[in-house]
Amino acid sequence: MSSSKRKTVWRIVRRVALGLFVLVAAVVLVVVVDGWTAFGKGADGDRRARMESSPQWNGDGFENPQPLWNDLWGGLRRGMNGSEYSSPTEPLPVLAGNAERFDTPPPTGLRVTWLGHSTVLLEIDGQRILTDPVWGERTSPLTWIGPQRWYAPPLSLEELPPVDAVVLSHDHYDHLDYPTIVAIADWEVPFIAPLGVGAHLEYWGVPADRIVEMDWWDTTTVGGLEIVCTPSRHASGRRILDQNATLWASYALVGPEHRVFFSGDTGLFPGLEQIGERFGPFDLAMLEVGAYDKSWPDWHLGPEQAVTAHQMVRGGTMLPIHWGLFDLANHAWTEPIERTVLAAEAAGVTLLQPRPGESIEPQAAPPSSVWWPQVPWETARQHPIVATGIP
């Protein structure tokens, strides 16, 4: 090749490279600008000092007693061959509206309304608790891309009855939803969250004096209800560079007459037995069952291990959560509940199977019915979820 031809080729290569660089830079700029506020804010000052004094702090961030194992290449392979039934193809039988039902307290003193994923309105011994409220359209910092909800919220924020506290498990986008927090920031109730999450809340407009940040085993009181921040096995982060910069948690809600466990997000770990010993037995255990993969088995319980976790915390009735609203993994969208039903039957565990928006009193629950369609899914034998590091 002559010298002039080499120069021409080199000029073309440089122009293509420059064009690609400009394109990537433009995309990054759009993402940063669009998601800047939703990314949240890191902790500093006294909040940061309290985080660093936590037994869970390792010098660079928070850590689990049992590390999370990941098979990166296996996950990529499964991601390219995920289920073609990962999202519904028909509208779901959501029970929307009917807010007047909350005008009458539950006769048993305990009522639960599943609003999809991990958003639950819990009425317990005269107190109303809202967990991980997600009314936004996407589990993403961006308004135009990311997992999109399959149905509108069964109750609008305006239809919700007054709540006594908002309880947050961690800062991942499908649990800490920026547009929802902005919409409810003026609610005059405590916002209860693990260490560090308060920085996001305050940045988004929640007054500092209504933010209650807790370490594992800390307790706060709402009315006559004790809310205990308990351990979980998971992670946190809203940006690439802030992984595990805030704590994650489950909760024990202990009232004068009833006890409820809320798992947040967790993999299986021995500490669940300790939670059961200290605060169980629970009348109701709300346990995550969806968004799992054998390539990352420690991040979430999966159906069969959720039933095991229910037994470990000494649960009475079990409510499966963290499924039925977003496509966050490679399995069929009905697989979590199908497998949970089978595992619960085999273990003799009483299971609630509410439709989105349905209110149920666990102690007076009607017979469960199958409301979801029948689509192909993998069994526990075909796709086992087995946590690592368990004695």
Describe what this molecule looks like in 3D.
- It is built from eight helices and 14 strands.
- α6 links the parallel β10 and β11.
- Strands 6-5-4-3-2-1-14 form a seven-stranded mixed β-sheet, with helices on one face. It has a seven-stranded mixed β-sheet with strand order 7-8-9-10-11-12-13, covered by helices on one side.
- The model is unreliable at 21-34 (pLDDT under 50).
- α7 crosses α8 (335-347).
- It has helices spanning 3-35, 45-52, 72-80, 178-184, 197-203, 271-279, 303-312, 335-347, and strands spanning 110-114, 120-124, 127-131, 165-167, 191-194, 211-214, 219-222, 225-230, 250-254, 259-262, 282-288, 315-321, 350-351, 359-360.
- It has 391 residues and is α/β, with parallel strands linked by helices.
Write a concise synopsis of the structure shown:
Helix content is 25%, strand content 16%. It has 391 residues and is of the alpha/beta class.
Which descriptors would you attach to this protein?
391 residues; alpha/beta; seven-stranded mixed sheet; globular
Task: Give me the side-by-side strand order of the main sheet.
Answer: 6-5-4-3-2-1-14
Distance between the termini: 66 Å
- Tell me the strand percentage band: 15-25%
Number of strands: 14
Give the overall form: globular
Mean pLDDT: 92
User: Total number of helical segments?
Assistant: 8
* H and E string: HHHEEEEHEHEEEEEHEHEHEE
Instruction: Decide which structural class fits the backbone.
Output: alpha/beta
Q: Helicity range of the residues?
A: 10-25%
Low-confidence parts: 21-34
What kind of sheet is the major sheet? Answer: 7 strands, mixed
Q: What value does the Rg take, in angstroms?
A: 22 Å
